[in-house]
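Sat 14:20. Reprocessing the chain from the morning session after the first attempt stalled halfway. Input below, unchanged.
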Amino acid sequence: MTFGTPQGTGWIEVICGCMFSGKTEELIRRLRRAQIARKRVAIFKPVVDDRYGADQIVTHDRISIPSIAVRHPRDILDQGRDADVLGIDEVQFFDRTVVDVCQQLAARGTRVIVAGLDTDYRGLPFDPVPELMAVAEYVTKAQAICVVCGNPATRTQRVVAGGGRILVAGGDAYEARCRRCFRPPEEVSGELFPPGGAGVGGHEA
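Finished this time. Tokens:
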């Protein structure tokens, strides 16, 4: 953080990148430091992310921290009202109202830290993360290691068929890939936004 910590105000931090890039690990690290500093910390995740249980955020290496699963972003406003520091994992699974929620929390004076995928399995921007990046004070773009060639990886390769845009899974369904080794689905190959497809601000059904 180049210019130090803001004083007398809240702010938004975004940790983004492909799968297996350490986003959740970095989120947990920041939240634990806030706990050590005796800040009031609240931690949330979407109910759809039930891979490792409903009451904790867990990394792929099984590092965990207790959390609250919520269905709607507005629930975060209610349950996190007393927090000095508030974390949200897998933020890409919420609709764009989470952006307004984060803005309201920051306006109250809360330090808001969110983590999520910046692109989906097609290599397209995964809203609402791009919008959160635009309004955040700090953005950390994490990279993984390409499982094919060993280069820095910025893409999430789905290696199973079907599932739509949202398919909650781990290493059995996804791999980290670099730009060269990433193979997007045929319908979006070579295109940023396919005709009639979902861009920023709209989810597929």
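The helical segments are 23-36, 73-79, 97-108, 129-135.
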